[in-house]
Amino acid sequence: MTLDAILDLTSLVLILLGAILCLTAAIGLLRFPDVLTRLHAATKPQVLGLILICVAIALSLRAWPVIAFLVPVILMQLATAPLSAHMVGRQAYRNGTIGEASLYVDELAESRGTPPAAGG
């Protein structure tokens, strides 16, 4: 097998794995019962699936402009997914949507009475 065939086969496998991870993330968003597990499903497999698909595209096209375009896409996803999950989880905690029985450690218990604008 030539190097081009090996890279094409590798990109095919990576796209398939990335698509499966994105599909499991979507199924997890629909099937999981509470906010914390849905946040886990929305961030971890989806981000890894996107990274795998971007790497597969870079391997398939083998061009520097494509890589230069995909690197910021991956970096923005890595920067925004944890931040948005943190903000959604924090708001769910403040609203009381997260059951206290499901928390092992409650580090925000003392800030529960603090208004959001007070910096707590």
From TrEMBL:
Record's keyword annotation contains Metal-binding: no
PANTHER family in UniProt: ANTIPORTER SUBUNIT MNHG2-RELATED
KW Flavoprotein (keyword) present: no
Gene: mnhG
Any Pfam family hit: PhaG_MnhG_YufB
Transmembrane segments: 12-30, 42-61, 67-85
Source organism per UniProt: Microbacterium koreense
InterPro entries, sorted: PhaG_MnhG_YufB
Membership in a protein family: Belongs to the CPA3 antiporters (TC 2.A.63) subunit G family.
Keywords noted in UniProt: Membrane, Transmembrane, Transmembrane helix
Protein name in UniProt: Monovalent cation/H(+) antiporter subunit G
